[in-house]
Amino acid sequence: MFGLLEITYYLCTTKMTISKRATEFVVYCIENTAARLGVSGAELYHELKRTDGIRSFLYPSYTTLHTQGKEYIVDETLEYIRQHNPDFNNQEKQS
User: Fold this and answer.
1) What pTM value is reported for the model?
2) Do 25 and 65 form a contact (C-beta atoms < 8 A)?
């Protein structure tokens, strides 16, 4: 798996549109948050889609959040989920 530095370098050195970069960021958020919760990426994707988190939170937050570290990004994504569905997987996976 690539680290944030490698991903950032790749994104900066390829001719990707801001929309494609934002989409890759959304996938990054979903997969890393799912890993923290110990659920599948698909399960978390469906929860975020159900609560409109992808369109109303992750995409609009791209310009701010993509400059932050993984822990902060995951924490912010979890905060959104907990605000919109406090009962969704209350058990975080212990690292």
Assistant:
1) 0.76
2) yes
